[in-house]
Amino acid sequence: MIAVKKEFNIKRHYDAKHSKYSEYTGLIRNDKIEALKKSISKQQMTFTKINENSKKATKVSLAISHPIAKNMKPFSDGQFVKECIMTAVDLLCPEEKNVFANVSLSSSTVTRRIEDIAKNFKLSLKDVAGQFQYYSIALDESNDLCDTAQLAVFVRGVTPDFRIFEEFVRLLPMKGRTTGVDIFNVVKDVLEEFNLNLDNIFGVATDGAPAMVVKENGFAALLEKYCKENGSQRDLIKVHCLIHQEALCVCQIYKIEKCHGNSCKVCELRKKSRSQSSSVPRVTQRNEIRIWRLIMLL
């Protein structure tokens, strides 16, 4: 019944609106049908072309916003980049000026594009992190210019097909205390957010701060305790970051060199005092002791 109604409606519409085409027969009718098909296709292509140009403009905006964020440039630089592009287009291909003019690079647009890129990265990392057979994390806590503690979390994991990924996960502002318990609670929430099962954690690298490495209430100790309470049988591998160790060594070497330089100055002072006449007061033993104590404090 539905098919009969449809056929009747189409026939009535044809007789009422397009009865003039009944006079065409044979090859003439076929040519007319092909001409009508091409006409409707051309109309559809007009809207399709506009849609494709809009998609290309969005892709260009995303492609330019990515290096702006990667190089930590101001979002307002997008408008400056567009001005440079339009200058180049005027000289190289002025006929394509309208295409490039549709690319939006205002500060608000660049902000939205970077937010979209960040969401895409986060979803991709979640998908990959959920496949980790084993993984380890690295933490670094330091203060920014506003004296707010910032905790950086990195993850390195391997999938069952032996693909290795190493990614920056999150930069977390620690507003308030930065004890081992506070760091543990924040890191635990982040790992759960990115589908990282604590049963698969294998090791942790820290910056060597007391809140990280204290035996009882440090972050590493609390993390190992939590894993064992949830059925894990392996001991967590705890590592002091090599980069931080190198920085500490450099500081110690600098202090030693500074102390050595000061001791050489004292020796030269003693030689000069001995070579001078008896009328000039020499460096007494008490003064030498004071000088050496000062050197040891440097």
Automatic annotation (TrEMBL):
Source lineage: Eukaryota, Metazoa, Porifera, Hexactinellida, Hexasterophora
Superkingdom in the source lineage: Eukaryota
This protein's name: General transcription factor II-I repeat domain-containing protein 2
